[in-house]
Design a protein that fits this description.
This protein is mostly helical. The protein has helices at about 1-5, 10-20, 20-30, 35-55, 55-65, 70-90, 95-105, 105-115, 125-145, 155-175, 185-205, 215-240, 245-250, 255-270, 275-300. The protein has one domain (about 15-300).
């Protein structure tokens, strides 16, 4: 049982399921708080949540000191830059278009890995799997909400979302290539604290300080988002540091995020229910994951 719980596939699924639950919490939080400041507070709390689990603060201090530039780089890329691009893009582009662009993220990660990591090249099987996943994301998006034809789509917003995907790919590769110099949990906690605090401070000149009190549902949403970020990012950074894990193959599991998000919407929101188009998209994503898993198993054999 212990071996199963520590398997890469199981942990990748857990991280993806956690991330898929963020949508509702973000929607609630943004009703009461500005985007960048809300994200900054969320990530700062996420990093602080991990401190009691780390325990050995002397080791944390020494590892951060020894890898100071690297920690700042991850905080800048993974938290500040990526989420700034994400929130600015989502603010300018209709939700359905945003979902499809962000959902194509594993393709960008695979491309960055192909040109950056010698043993993580694109193969015909991998390309087929990723393209099936991207198609599945597009189909699910179409099923949940029709595209806003005639609606104004900001080119700048699309560029921001594409930069979000590219930044995610670069960050994944940077973490995967630097192994065993700082523990994944110490890296996650320190980068979340630095990135979250930086994001919150940067937001003040642009968004100001909150002028109203927050209701209970805001704090519930903030608490859940902080927890899932701490858990999911720690799991993901741990998996990226495993010698046997290929960055491009790991990120294909992120195609589960829209699948789980759609299912959660059907369960939680009375206005949404299963439909043929969305289920077809889920089948395509399922097929992409099966193809990749069979290929990886065949490689090991």
């Amino acid at each position: 049982m212990k071996n199963f719980l520590s398997r890469t596939t199981f942990l990748a699924i857990v991280a993806s399921l956690l991330w898929s639950s963020a949508f509702v919490g973000v929607k609630i939080g943004l009703k009461y708080h500005t985007p960048l400041q809300f994200a900054g507070v969320r990530f700062l709390i996420s990093g602080l949540i991990l401190l009691p689990l780390i325990g050995d603060f002397k080791k944390l201090k020494n590892e951060v000191k020894e890898n100071f530039g690297y920690v700042w780089l991850i905080a800048f890329l993974q938290i500040v830059l990526q989420y700034t691009f994400f929130y600015m893009g989502v603010n300018l582009v209709p939700a359905s278009i945003s979902a499809m662009i962000v959902g194509s993220g594993p393709l960008f990660v695979a491309l960055v890995a192909h040109f950056s990591i010698s043993d993580d090249r694109l193969t015909r099987t991998k390309i087929t799997s990723i393209l099936l996943g991207v198609l599945g994301v597009a189909v699910i998006t179409l099923g949940r909400k029709s595209l806003p034809f005639g609606a104004e789509i900001s080119l700048l917003g699309v560029v921001f979302l594409l930069l979000n995907n590219l930044t995610s790919g670069v960050t994944n590769v940077v973490i995967a290539r630097k192994r065993q110099t700082i523990s994944p949990m110490n890296l996650t906690s320190s980068s979340l604290i630095i990135g979250g605090l930086s994001m919150a401070l940067i937001s003040v000149p642009f968004e100001g300080l909150p002028q109203k009190s927050f209701p209970a549902e805001y704090f519930i949403a903030l608490g859940w988002l902080s927890f899932l970020s701490a858990a999911a990012v720690t799991i993901w950074n741990t998996l990226l540091r495993r010698q046997s894990v290929k960055v491009s193959e790991l990120n294909v599991w992120k195609f589960l995020i829209p699948v789980s998000g759609a299912i959660l919407s059907w369960i939680i929101l009375p206005s949404e229910s299963p439909d043929l188009v969305s289920v077809s998209g889920m089948i395509l994503i399922g097929a992409s994951l099966v193809i990749l898993s069979l290929s990886a198993r065949k490689e090991k054999v």
